[in-house]
Amino acid sequence: MVLAHLRALVVLSVGLLMWTGSARAAATNWVGDSQAVVRLITATDNIAADSTLEAGLEFRFAKGWHGYWRTPGDAGIPPTVDWSASENISGAETSWPAPHRLVIDELQNSVYENDVVLPVKLHLKQAHTSARVKASIEYAACSEICVPLEAELALPLPTGAGGPSAESVLIDSARKSVPGSTEAAGIDVIRTRYAGTASEPTLVVDLQSKVEAFVRPDLFVEGAGNGIPPAPKVELQDAGKTARLTVRLAALPPPDRPLTLTLVDENRGAEFKGPTGTTTGEHSSAFFAALLSAVLGGLILNLMPCVLPVLSIKLFAFTRQTGGGLRDVRLGSAATASGIMITFLLLAASLVGLKWSGATLGWGIQFQQPWFLAGMAVLTVLFAASFFEWLPIGLPSSIATIASKRASGPMLEAFLAGVFATLLATPCSAPFVGTAVGFALARGPSEIFVIFLCLGIGMALPYWMAALFPGCVRWLPRPGPWMLVVRKFLGILMLGTGVWLIFVLWSIAGAWMAAITTVLLACLLGYRASISAPVKGQIAAPASRSSGWITAALAVVPIVVSLSAVGPVSQAAAGQEWQVFNLDALAGLIADGNTVLVDVTATWCLTCKVNDLRVLENAEVRSRLKQSHVIRMRADWSRPDPHIANYLHRFARYGIPLDVVYGPKLPQGEALPELLTTNVLLNAIDRASIHDYDRKSADSKSR
């Protein structure tokens, strides 16, 4: 009886030992000292039919101590592992969880602290065959000093069913902390490029988050000389959804070896490649090209439809000044040029402030704000009243005493004409303007101010020429009674501009806001007309102080009321022929063999309307766009929309119009010039499409 009990106890003990032994077969003992220890773990207890085995090296560092990532930085050594003594193991692939940055006396280090698992994928020579995993590890544990450590770890694994071990959770968790693709992290890499010079290069990375906003993004750069560069300068925009990371590099990589970039932001990470090639040399040739583009773009702005009403006003002013001396021409031209340049500098200051605040940047985005539209409508009505001689414009009396009272009115009117022309020019994206503005807004405050100053110089150039050579206006007609008719015509032209601004206000803030603004401006015009009308053949008396206060109130109230306007952020319906812009649908449409035209427009963009009339409504273009494999998408940027703003930034654009053609041959899209032509658009569609199209045959049929 006793013998039977002893036999049962032995069997139970052996079974218990076998059970506990198999449970612990997925991990070795800890090896190390008081600074750091390491062990080998596997995700399964046995070798099954799989050809690979998930394993991990788990490091545990004491408080105040740390180990190193694969690229340790300016100090330290990364862990190295030798698997050659293993049995039935043909190779190993080690993955590296995201590190964090540790800076000690300006030395950059990428480290691990506390507990970290390096996932390892072991390749088996034969499945269903027992293996002996042996790892010889060399690593360092550092605090105020660095201690080199070694460990010999061995783990036998028998054959079996291959179920998950107790340590599999640790390995799975470590896998999730390894930076993967940008798509898996919900991040779009908009652009990577080199900037600066060959001796002082920088790396600029533009990112957009498709999920949560960026918090504290860090970028680990590998391949730019020894160690790792310092932490990037981070600029967040669009409520943190867009980030620009600028990193100072010690050296550029060879042209055929792009940098490896690892982005770490809170609990997500992504790994991707940097650009190839050399620096853009923006401090020399590229910067000079941007300055030249700004001057030429500013000059061309004088011919854009946005500023034609003000250009007509200035020509009228030149004509009026031909009856006076050359001094009047010089002063009037210089005043207009000064108004243009000062306004451009104020726009630059506003954009710098918006950039620092993280807001969306763009050329003409102020036309998305109801208060700005109402203010511009008020300004056009005041100019119209001035041309109807209902509202004299002059300097304040305190300033007028310094200058000539006779010239104070024309001087202020000329200065305001320059201001007004610049503000009206902002919804126009003339040739060269988009390039210059995109270059400026992608850089720092100094570049923004310099580029916008050059835009102002370009737009003011005709007026500076008139100021320097006033005799050139002598060819204009001499003043006479005909100018009264022209003056009234220009007043009507300004009222037409006001009507257009109210229409844009209607599309952005709704019919009620547009109606209130219209009524108040009509009251303003009616009031000024009534107090300026002759009474019984007598010229109206000079305006009293009370009339000035009433005029000011009628001018200010529309702007104040518009501050409460809140327009919807969603896009308006695109129409029957155009689909509403959907960036997520592009990849699927292109994969199906379609050609896609994306048109970014707005109700306030007059250049967009010109493109519509001249190109998109062209019979040949319409025939091509109606093909079954051609899809038209329209993005309406009349109101603020961060998704559309981010889409513009993909192509380094900060203003509209923007037209992009996609297709199987152009999956990344090709951005077209701001001013479209029929040939440019059709040729881009030909390059993107996989479908043959005989333009000559189609043209003959259309005739």
From TrEMBL:
<keyword id="KW-0472">Membrane</keyword>
<dbReference type="GO" id="GO:0017004">
    <property type="term" value="P:cytochrome complex assembly"/>
</dbReference>
<feature type="domain" description="Cytochrome C biogenesis protein transmembrane">
    <location>
        <begin position="290"/>
        <end position="502"/>
    </location>
</feature>
<keyword id="KW-1133">Transmembrane helix</keyword>
<dbReference type="InterPro" id="IPR036249">
    <property type="entry name" value="Thioredoxin-like_sf"/>
</dbReference>
<dbReference type="InterPro" id="IPR003834">
    <property type="entry name" value="Cyt_c_assmbl_TM_dom"/>
</dbReference>
<dbReference type="Pfam" id="PF13899">
    <property type="entry name" value="Thioredoxin_7"/>
</dbReference>
<protein>
    <submittedName>
        <fullName>Suppressor for copper-sensitivity B</fullName>
    </submittedName>
</protein>
<feature type="transmembrane region" description="Helical">
    <location>
        <begin position="286"/>
        <end position="311"/>
    </location>
</feature>
<feature type="signal peptide">
    <location>
        <begin position="1"/>
        <end position="25"/>
    </location>
</feature>
<feature type="domain" description="Thiol:disulfide interchange protein DsbD N-terminal">
    <location>
        <begin position="48"/>
        <end position="155"/>
    </location>
</feature>
<dbReference type="Pfam" id="PF02683">
    <property type="entry name" value="DsbD_TM"/>
</dbReference>
<dbReference type="InterPro" id="IPR028250">
    <property type="entry name" value="DsbDN"/>
</dbReference>
<keyword id="KW-0812">Transmembrane</keyword>
<dbReference type="GO" id="GO:0045454">
    <property type="term" value="P:cell redox homeostasis"/>
</dbReference>
<feature type="transmembrane region" description="Helical">
    <location>
        <begin position="485"/>
        <end position="503"/>
    </location>
</feature>
<keyword id="KW-0201">Cytochrome c-type biogenesis</keyword>
<feature type="transmembrane region" description="Helical">
    <location>
        <begin position="371"/>
        <end position="393"/>
    </location>
</feature>
<dbReference type="GO" id="GO:0015035">
    <property type="term" value="F:protein-disulfide reductase activity"/>
</dbReference>
<dbReference type="Pfam" id="PF11412">
    <property type="entry name" value="DsbD_N"/>
</dbReference>
<feature type="transmembrane region" description="Helical">
    <location>
        <begin position="448"/>
        <end position="473"/>
    </location>
</feature>
<keyword id="KW-0732">Signal</keyword>
<feature type="transmembrane region" description="Helical">
    <location>
        <begin position="414"/>
        <end position="442"/>
    </location>
</feature>
<feature type="transmembrane region" description="Helical">
    <location>
        <begin position="548"/>
        <end position="567"/>
    </location>
</feature>
<feature type="transmembrane region" description="Helical">
    <location>
        <begin position="509"/>
        <end position="527"/>
    </location>
</feature>
<dbReference type="InterPro" id="IPR035671">
    <property type="entry name" value="DsbD_gamma"/>
</dbReference>
<feature type="transmembrane region" description="Helical">
    <location>
        <begin position="331"/>
        <end position="351"/>
    </location>
</feature>
<dbReference type="GO" id="GO:0016020">
    <property type="term" value="C:membrane"/>
</dbReference>
